[in-house]
């Protein structure tokens, strides 16, 4: 029995980029491109009609940009996963998109096979963000409002118990479930349960947002426990 294909919506204001993405992804038997949109407003309507599992979203678009569109889509009860497209590794706009609920990002010059892999991973619930790129983005996030952001982040994380806090730090450091399980001497199933509870307690969408919050709170600094 053939598995149901991943339903993918492409959103980019450049028709040539959309055509190129559709061509490179079209060869994957387990992914079906169900629609193309030229901006965030059109994407919102197409999501209602096509019900995609994943949206590949450009950040910079006229009318409704990718950040606004991501925030709107992630607020829907049947929210698709969103992967943002960008031309830069460390971009303030990427950070805004991740905070809005995107599950990760890919560069526009990423090899086709890696873009296809990113769509598959996000559809399976895994964020598309390497630990190295996560650290780069987080360093880019530091700024004049860092102290206020740290205070707010620590107040939010106060609802977590000690074990959930440890898991949040491990997520922030880019560890996968198996790595967290090994580091904390617990099962992968227990890690998944902790991650689910952390997301629910903090009102977050995905692991990327846990990582950003842990960074904001100062928990990822060497030797820092945030206390």
Descriptive overview:
This protein has about 230 residues and is of the alpha/beta class. It has two domains: about 5-135, Rossmann fold (3-Layer(aba) Sandwich), CATH 3.40.50.2300; about 145-215, Arc Repressor Mutant, subunit A (Orthogonal Bundle), CATH 1.10.10.10. The chain is about 50% helix and about 10% strand. It contains eleven helices and five strands; from the N terminus they run βαβαβαβαβααααααα. A five-stranded parallel sheet has the order 2-1-3-4-5, sandwiched between helices. Helix 3 runs parallel beside helix 4, helix 7 crosses helix 11 and helix 8 (about 160-170) packs across helix 11 (about 205-215). The radius of gyration is 18 Å and the shape is globular. The termini are far apart. The model is unreliable at about 225 (pLDDT under 50). It holds the Pfam family Response_reg. This is DNA-binding NarL/FixJ family response regulator. One of its GO terms (biological process) is regulation of DNA-templated transcription.
Instruction: Return the CATH architecture of the largest domain.
Output: 3-Layer(aba) Sandwich
Based on CA atoms alone, the radius of gyration comes out at 18 Å
Largest sheet: 5 strands, parallel
Number of domains: 2
How far apart, in Å, are the first and last alpha carbons? Answer: 52 Å
Number of distinct beta strands: 5
Mean pLDDT: 86
> Beta-sheet strand percentage?
5-15%
Number of helices: 11
Q: What would you call the structural class?
A: alpha/beta
CATH topology heading of the largest domain:
Rossmann fold
* Shape by Cα distribution: globular
- List the secondary-structure elements in sequence, H or E: EHEHEHEHEHHHHHHH
CATH class label of the largest domain: Alpha Beta
Strand order of the largest sheet: 2-1-3-4-5
Which regions contain 5 or more consecutive residues with pLDDT less than 50? 223-227
Percent helix among the residues? Answer: 40-55%
CATH-assigned homologous superfamily of the largest domain:
Response regulator
């Amino acid at each position: 029995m053939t598995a149901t294909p991943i339903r993918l919506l492409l959103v980019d204001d450049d028709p040539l980029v959309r055509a190129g993405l559709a061509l490179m992804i079209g060869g994957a038997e387990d992914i079906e491109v169900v629609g193309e949109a030229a901006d965030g407003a059109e994407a919102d309507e197409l999501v209602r009609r096509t019900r995609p599992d994943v949206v590949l979203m450009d950040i910079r678009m006229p009318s409704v940009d990718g950040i606004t569109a991501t925030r709107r889509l992630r607020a829907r009860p049947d929210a698709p996963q969103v992967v943002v497209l960008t031309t830069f590794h460390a971009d303030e706009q990427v950070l805004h998109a991740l905070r809005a609920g995107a599950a990760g990002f890919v560069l526009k010059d990423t090899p086709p096979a890696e873009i296809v892999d990113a769509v598959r991973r996000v559809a399976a619930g895994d964020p598309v963000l390497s630990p190295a790129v996560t650290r780069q983005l987080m360093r880019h996030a530091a700024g004049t409002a860092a102290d206020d952001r740290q205070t707010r982040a620590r107040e939010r994380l106060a609802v977590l118990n000690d074990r959930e806090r440890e898991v949040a730090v491990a997520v922030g450091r880019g560890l996968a479930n198996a790595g967290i399980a090994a580091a904390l001497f617990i099962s992968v199933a227990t890690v998944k349960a902790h991650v689910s509870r952390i997301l629910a307690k903090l009102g977050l969408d995905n692991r990327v947002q846990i990582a950003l919050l842990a960074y904001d709170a100062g928990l990822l600094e060497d030797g820092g426990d945030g206390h």
